[in-house]
Design goal:
- The protein has 7 helices and 29 strands.
- By secondary structure, it is mostly beta strands.
- Strands 11-12-15-16-18-17 form a 6-stranded mixed β-sheet, with no helix packed on it. Strands 22-29-28-24-25 form a 5-stranded mixed β-sheet, with no helix packed on it.
- Helix 5 runs parallel beside helix 6.
- The radius of gyration is 25 Å and the shape is globular.
Length: 516
């Protein structure tokens, strides 16, 4: 360990917004403080001590009943990044990193503002912004900012990929996120790293320079939020002069910190994980790029926890997963959501009349975000389609508007219900008749497949429809007589809200004639 390797400090209560510490200020006991491995708790005076192991960050966990001071970018100030010698120069990173922070200060001070305990609160969960450059950042501002600013919530979480490998996007994205006007807690994405760093640890330097630590925790009400760094980047391959591979992976230091963090978290709290790469994706079960490959280590740490949930980004799709399908064996239910992407299909697709790309991801879902509403350890959520708040939750893909049953073998009903869990019952009926159940299936949305074929010039060659689990299927009766019909799809979302969408179609049956 380096000389003077004990970090000492105080967590104290601000008065009137004054963030300067003086001995008479009230220390706050019981606050978690970490060096990104170990976790200690402040004493009755708000004092803590922690050993320092080289380059790291000292972070506190925001306790419920307090708010953190914000910087000019509306970023919560809960950390001190320690780089006594700066980012190693020999890495020759392309993008800004850290200059020397010098010797560890004699004391570190973390101010908090006292507030009422928040048993009820709301938060936005938003998938990948992922701009390639200025044009995509302007798309984000035009499409997403008005909707985000209109939400009455307490904070928001950008779920990673705040850039798309070109990290000069980080400063203007930070400026755009500041304009939301809320505190935010960012998550590291696989496209937020310095790809040319041969050392994985320092691949995160530019992200941390602009957005802070890559794993940490914070509390609101009865919810303990845990931000994970699950980007398993091997580092730049110097010999081949190419980027290394990326998988979903939890580093041993992340797991050590998580174990210690949970040891100080009461068992009656909802543990709410926030990550970029999903813990498990059922639609890409064997893809190491789209799952945390060592998730069993995470499962071991929470196997006795009664209240668990997870939200991620990365895949640009909306997906709901029961983690038992991914190896979870704990007694409690553990579900996961992939929250889609603010950028939809990477800001590609035909440009619409408003100057923005079509708002459709490759699972058929619109660009958008989720708003979670918490009460105690319970929660519910709603999906907001960006720029189109009245967008229907149900898209009927089949049948077409006219069916000729002569020789037709496809009588399929197929619907895409963008944000529903596959366990939710979905029904159809014809002409106000009885309800019949539809079956959840996994597959490609045929509308997306055809749209890509028709608009090949608007998409890169690698763009394909994405396998999704929010499709429901059934069959029309094969003996429908010719005539006009109204097909209605009926469901209730997880909040009990009735969803309904109708399609008018006609059955035509040309009378067969016999030649003489």
């Amino acid at each position: 360990m380096e000389q003077g390797s004990i970090a000492k400090g105080y967590v104290f209560e601000m008065e009137g917004g004054n963030k300067t510490y003086t001995p008479e200020k009230k220390g706050i006991p019981g606050v978690l403080v970490t060096n990104q491995r170990q976790v200690v708790v402040t004493d009755a005076h708000g004092y803590f001590e922690l050993p320092i192991f080289g380059d790291c960050a000292i972070c506190i966990t925001k306790p419920d009943g307090f708010s953190l001071p914000l910087n000019a970018w509306n970023q919560a100030q809960f950390y001190y990044i320690h780089r006594p010698l700066g980012t190693p120069r020999d890495l020759q990173l392309e993008y800004p990193a850290f200059e020397s922070t010098g010797s560890l200060p004699d004391f570190l001070y973390f101010p908090l503002q006292k507030e009422e305990t928040q048993m009820e609160f709301s938060a936005i969960m938003m998938g990948d912004v992922q701009p390639f450059g200025e044009q995509e950042i302007n798309y984000f501002k035009k499409l997403l900012l008005p909707d985000l600013q209109a939400q009455n919530v307490d904070f928001f979480v950008p779920l990673g990929d705040l850039a798309w490998d070109l990290l000069e996007a980080h400063p203007p994205v930070r400026e755009a996120l500041q304009q939301v006007g809320l505190p935010y807690y960012p998550v590291l994405g696989n496209h937020d790293i310095n790809l040319k760093s041969p050392q994985p640890f320092y691949a995160r330097e530019t992200y941390q320079h602009y957005f802070g630590p890559t794993y940490y925790s914070f509390d609101y009400g009865q919810v303990h939020f845990i931000v994970l760094d699950d980007i398993g980047y091997e580092g730049w391959d110097v010999e081949m002069d190419e980027k290394g591979s990326t998988t979903g992976f939890l580093d041993p230091n992340v797991l050590l910190w998580l174990r210690n963090d949970l040891a100080h978290t009461p068992p009656d709290r909802l543990i709410f994980f926030l990550s970029h790469i999903p813990i498990f994706s059922k639609t890409a079960a064997h893809n190491n790029y789209r799952n945390i490959t060592n998730r069993e280590r995470l499962f071991e740490l929470v196997e006795n926890r009664p209240l668990l949930f997870s939200v991620a980004g990365h895949t640009h799709c909306i997906e709901h997963v029961n983690l038992r399908d991914g190896g979870w064996h704990g007694k409690a239910e553990f579900k996961s959501m992939v929250a889609g992407a603010a950028c939809g299909a990477w800001w590609t697709g035909p440009i619409q009349s408003d100057g923005l790309p079509i708002r459709m991801a490759m699972d058929g879902a619109p660009n958008g975000f989720f708003v979670f509403h918490f009460s105690g350890t319970s929660f519910h959520y709603t999906f907001h389609a960006a720029g189109t708040p009245d967008a229907p939750a149900i898209a009927i893909r089949k049948p077409p508007g006219q069916i000729d049953f002569n020789g037709v073998t496809d009588h399929t009903i197929l619907v895409n219900l963008f944000y529903l869990e596959s366990e939710i019952p979905v029904f159809y009926r014809l002409n106000e008749g009885p309800l019949h159940p539809l079956t959840p299936i996994m597959g490609d949305d045929p509308y997306v497949v055809e749209f890509l074929k028709k608009n090949q010039d608007s998409y890169p060659e690698w763009m394909l429809a994405r396998r999704t689990s929010h499709l429901w299927q059934g069959e029309l009766p094969k003996d429908l007589p010719a005539g006009e019909y109204v097909l209605e799809i009926v469901a209730k979302d997880q909040n009990g809200k009735k969803l309904s969408e109708k399609l008018n179609f006609a059955v035509v049956s040309k009378k067969k004639t016999t030649a003489y």
